[in-house]
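@channel sequence for tomorrow's demo:
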Amino acid sequence: MGGFLHCPHIRTITSPASGSGFGTESTGSGSIVSARPGFAPARTGSSRPSRPSQLDPSLTEHIAGGLDPEEINEMSHASAAAMLDRVHHSVDPVVVKRVITLVDTEGVDVVAELWSHSEPDTLPGILWRLYLLRTWMRTNGDEISYLWRVGEPEPTSSSAIVGVDNAPDTADIARTADSILAGAFTGDFAVALERAAAFTDVIVRGMRLRAKTLQRRLDDIPKDGEADHESASPNVQRTSADVYGDDRSQSNEHAQSMRRSISSLQSTASNLALTSHDFHLGANLWRRGRSNKAGCK
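structure tokens (generated this afternoon):
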């Protein structure tokens, strides 16, 4: 595993968690501490490898009853490390499917209680962001496929890194969401984070371009009393009342709706940009840990 997880003597880089987009503030450390694994293997009576199919019921009860923040921090690191290690060494596709659908089966609240307060430069913190990215992508496939086309009108290196065509549909977005998260468990963890970062970078670009387009349209709407100089005849000037009739409220509502859309796009883009930074940082820390692995023994 990577160095921002197993090397206590390597200080982690702290990034602003409050603006990460998908995460919350925390005081968690970057090293793994000894704790009972938070994921219980499903016993089938056979000799097949243990499966991290669900959260340990006793852990769920403890969380519901309220644990000390330090205990939750300890469990979050241990459970994330145990799950990643078990799945990475498994060849059973059922195991992978159960892990990537963890939030779907266990509920986001339970997983959030365990991982969401971890810093983005820790394993539980970055896994939490990957899970939220998958959920967001699958929930908003139509919008995201449109934003991808806006942000990536022609294929670039981002398309190659993510593995997405230049005109993805909703199903493509869902498959990509699963592929990125599954890759974190079955392939190179740093590569999975780089795919997540490249994907969010494109969506951020699409959101910002869309916001600029809406802003231009908003600026073109004549304000009350202003003349519209783009009328068909150069000798005829139309005011907003001429364009929209006497129903000025319709014009105002339209403008307000556009302003809300612009604000939402800009805000989400800013949050996603910080999340992309977290993914880039995680990939760098993971690779740095691999190169320093000998010093962690």
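heads up for whoever presents: The longest helix spans residues 248-291.
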